[in-house]
Amino acid sequence: MGETKAVIRQPQSDKHSLELSELPFAFGLGVEQLEQQTTKTRLLPMLNKITVKQRLHKLEVCFGCTRNNRYCVYTEEGDQIYYVYEDSVCLMRQMTGALRGLILKMTDEDQEDVLIMKRPARCSSRCFWSCCSLQVMDIIVQQDKEKAATIYEVWSCCIPQYRVVNKEGSLLWRVKGGTCHYRCCSQIHFEFLTPDGERAAAVNRECQGCDELIGASNTFSIHYDLDARQRLIILGSTFLVDLNYFEKQNRCW
Questions:
Q1: Strand duo 49-54 + 219-224: pairing
Q2: Residues 6+ away with beta carbon under 8 Å from 175
Q3: What do you get for the CA distance between the two ends of the chain, in Å?
Q4: 30 Cβ neighbours under 8 A, 6+ residues apart
């Protein structure tokens, strides 16, 4: 009879072993949920142009009262992907108008928060007596649970200007508008410029015809070719431009 040889199996190398930490979603979500989260995460990066439309409410037109702002975000094909609504105090909306403090929340089709934008009550750049307290808005990416960037208004006599910085305070973009201040029935352009002066994104406020005569609705188109996080920051920054530049109630100018 032949000799029986013992077979000894060597342990697999660590680099080929699969650690539990390498599968953060596999044990918590099903395949269908994983596909849904992947679609939501990658939806915005695939879009080089989106449109933001402010919703017009009849009560504001008929009675002149200021309601919470509401916006819808659409793809270039007209499909709605996000909904944005304002959370603010009614008394502050009527008394301080466009200078009120507020919180904007952007949700997806499942009513899950995507972006949160917080703006305290401050003056505008045309209030010369209080130019040290200009508009500012924090932009929070809900997926990261932390502040991603802040947009600051820069005092200017004629041209609207803003600065967008990251959470460390480093400059991401400078935002510059046009010299034309005739807002009704005209297109107005804002550009997001890198510290080197290159254009990173363009925001165009489109003419809305009769809706503009009552000052109740704005529509923006945003063009960019950036990564997902940067696109969300630029989208959030656009709302401060809308609130600060196009809302007219109780302004200093």
A1: antiparallel
A2: 151, 160, 161, 162, 163, 164, 190, 191, 192, 193, 237, 241
A3: 105
A4: none
**What's the rounded Cα separation, in Å, for the pair 30 and 51?**
33
Q: How confident is the model at residue 166 (pLDDT cuts 50, 70, 90)?
A: very high
| Cβ(67)–Cβ(90) below 8 Å | no
CA distance 85 to 52: 12
Q: Which long-range contacts (CB under 8 A, 24 or more apart) does 195-204 make?
A: 195/171, 200/173, 200/224, 200/226, 200/230, 200/234, 201/173, 201/226, 201/234, 203/234, 203/238, 203/241
| pLDDT value, residue 159 | 82
Residues with Cβ within 8 Å of residue 192, at least 6 apart in sequence: 164, 173, 174, 175, 199, 200, 201, 202, 203, 224, 234, 237
Question: Per-residue pLDDT for 228 more than 50?
Answer: yes
| Tokens of residue 156, six digits | 């200017």
| CA–CA separation, 18 and 16 (whole Å) | 7
- Highest average pLDDT, of 24-38, 113-127, 183-197, 227-241, comes from 227-241
Full-prediction pTM beyond 0.90? Answer: no
Q: Nearest-CA neighbor of 235 among 146, 111, 117?
A: 117
